[in-house]
Amino acid sequence: MKYIFEARMMVRDYECDIEGIVNNANYLHYTEHTRHLFLKSCGLSFAEMHSRGVDAVVAHMDLRYKVPLRCDDEFISRLALKKEGLRYVFYQDIYRASDDKLCFKSVIDIVCLVNGRLGDSEDYNRAFAAYL
Fold first, then answer.
1. Is the pTM value of this prediction over 0.90?
2. What is the distance of C-alpha 42 from the center of its chain?
3. Contact yes or no for 122/64 (Cβ under 8 A)
4. Among 60, 88, 100, 127, which is most buried by a count of CB atoms within 10 Å?
């Protein structure tokens, strides 16, 4: 996979469950935060797009949990992207930084609602053009 963006983060203690591993739902927060950082790196603001009537929303997720992250683990959230019709398909993988071990693998389909209706966003298309 050819990744086009990555973000380094650290597991915080409150993200872990009683077993001492990251609760499964937090991986979704990590991938969402990575997408928002990627969007910023492309010159767009998620909040600003919303104020203009364009909302990027999750349509589908395929998630695979591989090796658990633990408290204080540093990790790298990596992202690849392609477009299929109206869908932006994000391939997002999370690796433990200490040994580059794959911890989480996902494919997340995002669609745009333009003024409340499913549609194509010229702003997103333009921002992502170099990667599609």
1. yes
2. 14
3. no
4. 88
